[in-house]
Design goal:
By secondary structure, the chain is of the alpha/beta class. It has ten helices and eight strands. It has a six-stranded parallel sheet, with helices on both faces. It has a two-stranded antiparallel ribbon with strand order 2-3.
């Protein structure tokens, strides 16, 4: 069965960060600076300790409050610090931090060409774990990438996150393909394990020139979400660059099972 669909992760796959550690400290600094204006008394180092693992904490309960997952996290975090901000001020602080982080984001130089080529005769979907869906949609629009994707699935929009196979099934339903017709390219364990759980063939991207994108702020960086040398990658295709997708998918024998 030919590959009829290609699913992509976003951060770490189509997008890299110029300096991952600097990005997270800029996130922390921007958040701290904004909150000081609203009465935060902690200095930056004290505040950093209180923000360690901000995105790794359990998600706040989903309620119909008009907030994104990121904004709910921020509201709950501020409450723990004894800060109660009006929604507009909380959102301003949250977005100032996110914009500071995203200023380090860079579209992979090969991404646009690869997406343009693959979208000619295959369905493409983006599946991203991100707590502020509007940021993903705006980034894709600003980069002129939206039109390449038949479906964009962001965890904040659908209430599901990788490695939950249901987020992959959601994308499959929307593009009208079966798991056996699709491959998924990502950079984390959640990408590989989630795709496998959904019956989709995973491909892992590991660049020599780019550091892993750590998906959370930590005073001391942690990368356990990635496959390390101690992890088994038996049966998982690993590519060093996005451009390799064009080569392997152009082969007459390019079926999902043949890519294992």
């Amino acid at each position: 069965m030919k590959v009829k669909g290609v699913f992509f992760d976003l951060y770490g796959t189509l997008v890299t960060l110029a300096d991952v550690r600097a990005a997270w400290w800029d996130w922390l600094t921007a958040l701290h600076s904004t909150l000081v204006e609203h009465g935060l008394s902690l200095d930056r180092d004290e505040f950093a300790g209180r923000c360690d693992g901000f995105f790794s904490k359990p998600e706040p309960e989903q309620i119909d409050d008009g907030f994104t997952v990121y904004e709910r996290r921020m509201s709950a975090h501020l409450a723990e610090l004894g800060l109660v901000l009006e929604p507009q001020h909380m959102r301003r602080a949250a977005m100032a931090a996110l914009n500071a982080w995203h200023a380090h984001a860079r579209l992979d130089p090969e991404a646009r060409d690869v997406l343009a080529d693959l979208s000619k005769n295959r369905k493409l979907a983006l599946i991203s774990n991100f707590d502020q869906a509007s940021h993903v949609h705006e980034f894709l629009a600003n980069e002129g990438l939206t039109a390449f994707f038949d479906v964009v699935v962001v965890s904040d929009d659908v209430g599901l996150k990788k490695p939950d196979p249901r987020i992959f099934r959601h994308a499959l339903d929307r593009v009208g393909l079966s798991p056996e017709e699709v491959i998924h390219i990502g950079d984390m364990k959640d990408d590989v394990l989630g795709a496998l759980s959904a019956g989709i063939t995973p491909i892992l991207i590991r660049r020599e020139w780019a550091d892993p994108i750590i998906p959370d702020f930590h005073v001391q960086p942690k990368v356990s979400v990635y496959f390390g040398d101690e992890d088994s990658l038996d049966g998982v295709r690993v590519i060093p660059a996005l451009s390799e997708l064009k080569t392997i998918l152009s082969a007459p024998t390019a079926t999902p099972s043949a890519l294992l």
